[in-house]
Amino acid sequence: MSARVHTNPSNRAKARETVEKKVVFKPVLDSPFRVPWPSVPFNVQNTALACTISLLDGVSEYNSVRGLENRKRKALQRESKQNKKRKLDAETVVATSSEDVVLPECPAVVPHLIVGINEVTKRLDVQIRSLRKIVAVDGEQPNTPPPPIKLIVVCRADVDPQILIDHLPHEVAAFNSSKPPDPIKMVPLPKGSESALAKAIGVRRAAVIAMDANTPGLVAFSSILDSVPTITAPWLTSLAASTTRNLIPTHVKQLRTTAPKDMKVAKQLRADGKAAAKARKKEKMAKVVVVA
């Protein structure tokens, strides 16, 4: 994985800075709570993309016709509100719109798909909370959780900035660390997958797609899921479940930054600046005393 380069200017950088600087690399310790993305070969990524597009067959046409029907229904509703003489109620509007547009049969895979970064994140949060022991009050029926997520495909190479999806490995690891019988698998897709998936679904963007365990046709991914590593967080695993305590190896990062070429000159300029600021402050205070 290539190193991330931050090119944003520093918040403390001054507009007028005359000190010449050079590029230096500063070693820093990485966080031990880092959850890396799964390392998946490119051939597996391409196979996962092909299986996903095949699974989404017919979804684009369904969403296109449904969107057309919704737009027409809303247009008729606006028209009925503007023209009160026609006195069209909501039922007449819906009936008229349904006569003009025939909605095709909903593909069986649609109810089992979760599309979008926010929607997948919310569903993962619900799935993680379902691991807790629910204490039901007398007379209160606990909510039935939705089917658990089985597979998540992420167009990681197409998301910019990637901080939008950096939380997904941590969410998946939080669930998998509880050692469920059916852990979640996450597969990053090759570059250019987002446009292909968006076209297959009939939306503008589809950076993340999750599929629950009851998704029809999920068997097509069985041949590749064995080669996809399961993401876990060792520090979330209970001590009772693990007999040995494994230490994460130290990971040192090289932080690319800048430093003055001549440190002696830089220190002198900084001292002169402090002295000048102190003199200006003293002069300002003297003027205030004289006026008073």
Automatic annotation (TrEMBL):
GO cellular component, one term: nucleolar ribonuclease P complex
Any one GO biological process: rRNA processing
Top-level taxonomic group: Eukaryota
Gene3D superfamilies: 3.30.1330.30
A GO term for molecular function: ribonuclease MRP activity
Pfam families on file: RNase_P_pop3
PANTHER family linked to this entry: RIBONUCLEASES P/MRP PROTEIN SUBUNIT POP3, RIBONUCLEASES P_MRP PROTEIN SUBUNIT POP3
Protein name: Uncharacterized protein
Top-level taxonomy: Eukaryota, Fungi, Dikarya, Basidiomycota, Agaricomycotina
